[in-house]
């Protein structure tokens, strides 16, 4: 038999082992080809606003995708080589050189990779327009495109595939040359042994893992309010979380299972023997991979949930920071011109005039003389702001409510009363601020911390605040367009009527810019998250395939003793639920705390997008568990 026939026969023999790996390769190559196609599509790049660096974002996503694919391929290849270690040993035992064995394995992976490259490129070419339509829908653009093929994307994909093949070949050569015959024949029978530590030591290490995770969660709650120590706090959280997760998998779970076994006096029964015992003995060997899987799952869930939340709440967040479609400060002529042009264009709108005061002041703690640096403040009357359609809480006489959609991010959320000190002509030179609200009463483009007071307080402060450099009387013209379908026309009228050097922004332009930015973010995060999920799920699946082959003799013995397939599968299902749900559950918990910290970026509720993202992640993960259980069932059936 020549080398070519041997390779083809080996691939047919191992087809069950390769099919998910082959699918993952096709998926990764196809997705990278899609990213490359979109990256090189100049038409789309020109359509997207300048605020979104379309090509650069996709290029970074492509680099991350390459990194994920390389790590996954190296891990999968190592599992396949280990499963075929006896076959490699037999080749060397009959006199074939290590160079010949390495060449055969490399040829086999090359054929497999070329097939994945061909199919992945074709799938990517067919789906690139679909993904482009999805992206354009996310950012709110409606354009009709024809089907095209990017040769530049093809060249990039082939270059990435070549690098991947070279890395895999180096791994195969290294493994074949450094392995002895004894290691090759025993590789498939190497099981992890349970380390019997003193119960006190095991308990301390087990509690240490949970304590480190808890401490990391606790420290994460300070990140949002300590921007100066952001990097240091994040480093502490990462170290504690990762180390704690490793100890949980390495010691805590095994310790808990061992305590359960002692409680049963060693009489575990069939179901527990097929679930608890294998986990207890293998958990130490799984600690590294399960820690990586858990951290990657947490990162993917956080990335997807956060990007979806930002996109989901874009309109709400922009409206909280810009309550009016457009506004002008001390520009009555431009306001009259805009109103006239809107009427000529037959666009229905509301226009209001709002008085305000800008003055210099400083935040101070109540009953304290310590003050922050002077900063500008914008003062508005609650009664007048209600007349223009805003729903406000009226403050008491002599008090103010601080309005800012970024109050939490700025660390200015008022949990206890604060005061604003200003230069006054009378004895009263402080304004009590007992609470804050996470919205603006005037568009954010006008500088100054926004305070709302009663009409009486507004009139008193207007007369008492010192003149010259400390006080400026303002007149705002604010507009709200009543016909949503004509907001783009109204925006063009607004922008053409004001000096562009003033950098004034309107609600519609700001919303479209944010929608494009977050649309691109969720587009990239969604598919990178799928690659994370596919990689971690596949790694677990491959490991369970290996364990199923190693335990086949055990199942044969049980079948010979008269146990039915369904009886054995009940214990195996318990084991798989442990294997998949433990890292998934810990990963979801990590993601929940990470998202809690990230929630300061979003004023609107994140609950709905987070629940949807997590539910989708759980469903896909359970599909991997179902495939694993089905594979075990086929092993149990064929054991006898």
TrEMBL record:
GO cellular component term of the entry, any: plasma membrane
Main location: membrane
Membrane topology label: Multi-pass membrane protein
Keyword Plastid attached: no
Residue ranges of domain ABC3 transporter permease C-terminal in the record: 60-176, 527-626
Keywords, ordered alphabetically: Cell membrane, Membrane, Transmembrane, Transmembrane helix, Transport
Bilayer-crossing regions: 20-38, 58-81, 111-127, 134-152, 158-177, 198-219, 231-257, 290-311, 518-542, 577-604, 610-632
One GO BP: transmembrane transport
Compartment list: Cell membrane
UniProt keyword annotation of rRNA-binding present: no
Similarity comment: Belongs to the ABC-4 integral membrane protein family.
PANTHER family: ABC TRANSPORTER PERMEASE (PTHR46795:SF3), ABC TRANSPORTER PERMEASE-RELATED-RELATED (PTHR46795)
Record's protein name: FtsX-like permease family protein
Lineage of source species: Bacteria, Bacillati, Bacillota, Bacilli, Bacillales
